[in-house]
Write a structure and sequence with these properties.
The chain is mostly helical. The chain has four helices and two strands, in the order H-E-E-H-H-H. The protein has a domain at 1-47.
């Protein structure tokens, strides 16, 4: 949870820098879920935001497609983990592989079961 929160904060900061926003006027951040962020910008967390906001729904789709493409590349580097099939989700297959051969260098050690 902490890694997700920090990632979101870093992503917002990066986007604001890219926008070249001098005083951040007109920027309002919406977040999917019940996440408390440490931002100087106004924001709102929306539980089930992907069903209530077209912006959040679109961002969710882009994030998942990007993640899936990354996992296909990782599958070529680490074929023994089956990333092309489960995309890193903790399926039974994925958990069994982790028990059998252990985590790769891309696995997040902070996740339960890794």
């Amino acid at each position: 949870m902490e890694a997700t929160r920090l990632s979101m904060q870093q992503a917002v900061a990066s986007l604001v820098r890219k926008l070249g926003a001098v005083n951040n006027k007109g920027i309002y951040v919406i977040v999917d879920g019940n996440m408390s962020l440490d931002l100087v910008l106004p924001y709102r967390s929306i539980i089930k935001g992907d069903t209530k906001s077209k912006s959040i729904a679109a961002a969710s789709i882009l994030a998942k497609v990007t993640r899936d493409r990354i996992m296909l590349k990782y599958d070529k580097l680490y074929p023994e983990y089956g990333f092309a099939r489960h995309k890193g989700y903790p399926t039974r297959e994925h958990r069994d592989i982790l028990k059998k051969i252990g985590p790769s260098r891309i696995h997040r050690k902070s996740f339960a079961g890794v």
